[in-house]
Amino acid sequence: MPKAANGICACFGKTAGATRLGLRYGKPVQSQVQLKGRDLLTLKNFTGEEIQYMLWLSADLKFRIKQKGEYLPLLQGKSLGMIFEKRSTRTRLSTETGFALLGGHPSFLTTQDIHLGVNESLTDTARVLSSMTDAVLARVYKQSDLDILAKEATIPIVNGLSDLYHPIQILADYLTLQEHYGSLKGLTLSWIGDGNNILHSIMMSAAKFGMHLQAATPKGYEPDPNIVKLAEQYAKENGTRLSMTNDPLEAARGGNVLITDTWISMGQEDEKKKRLQAFQGYQVTMKTAKVAASDWTFLHCLPRKPEEVDDEVFYSPRSLVFPEAENRKWTIMAVMVSLLTDYSPVLQKPKF
Questions:
Q1: N or C: which end of the chain has fewer CB within 10 A?
Q2: Which H or E element spans position 136?
Q3: Residues 14-24, buried b or exposed e (16+ Cβ, 10 A)?
């Protein structure tokens, strides 16, 4: 059924981040971007301007609520269905606390409560949820299930993670980098790890901000070729660089942001031994950082295993993993506000 189209992190302390980014109160800005009623299944479906708007809204909410202590019941009377086929700390906590902080009511549904396409068809599930909630965030195994839910629902469907994409994680990553560097344009992202849903989401969005991407994956663990092809098109259109390699140091060379993720995702436990062998040499260490840019930082969406990144990097002052984790809350709040309301930010738009 068709639908209508429509930061400041703890690492800055108090209000210093707002000053550094030039974020100031002003009259509400009526953006030309209208996201109300849309689905968020993949950042492929969003322009650079639309993604910028969600980050701008994230910074606005974070500053007004966290720094200024304002109460903004923007989702008063709204309800959210949360379908979790896969467990999660950050996705569940950020969504539940964020939606409630804005005055809404989140309802958590596990595989014990709802079996997508098993006890009830996806079509029937979508129609029932549409009649009882205002939006659904679904953390699922298959992207195809999300696509069916979105097709059949009359409310916004948000991808909380699938086998193909993890868009809400990338929004948190970009807000974190925006806060740290002051701008995203021109940054070089160095991915070292699996060709997974996180990398796919970066590939669908980085070039739209003018960011370059250097990705290293082991042989046999490269990203989806169709996504690579589209990412190459984005890079060409936006004048950015996209390079793919099997050499971690080559991907890290000159990179501003070193990024990795788990090598063994939920559902891949039987591949553990094989994967650990394939990813030998992919651990991010200070040796990796030595070839990166002088202002390098590190991101990991968590949970982290020591074989992916050593303690020296993970707990170093260059690591942004904990501000990154917190920003999952502010970005998912911005997503819900942008898809469910006509709210306009009162902070001046940051420089992207």
A1: N
A2: strand 135-139
A3: eeebbeebebe
Structure tokens at 4: 């209508």
Give burial (CB, 10 Å; 0-12/13-18/19+) of 182: middle
Task: Give the pLDDT confidence score for residue 111 in this predicted structure.
Answer: 82
C-alpha–C-alpha distance, residues 229 and 56, integer Å:
29
Tens-place pLDDT, residues 37-60: 999 999 999 999 999 999 999 999
Helix orientation angle between 321-340 and 167-181, rounded to the nearest 10 degrees: 120
Domain 10-55+74-166+331-340 is of which CATH architecture?
Answer: 3-Layer(aba) Sandwich (3.40)
- Spatial neighbors of 286 by CB under 8 A, at least 6 apart, are 310, 312, 313
Which residue in the list 189, 292, 299, 301 is annotated as catalytic? 301
Instruction: Please tell me whether residue 332 adopts helix, strand or coil conformation.
Output: helix
CATH T-level fold of 168-264+272-324? Rossmann fold (3.40.50)
301 counts as catalytic: yes
Q: Which of 186, 250, 165 is nearest to 216 (CA)?
A: 250
pTM, two decimal places: 0.91
CA–CA separation, 195 and 27 (whole Å):
43
Tokens of 338: 């942008």
Half-sphere exposure of 152 (CA within 13 A, CB side): 16
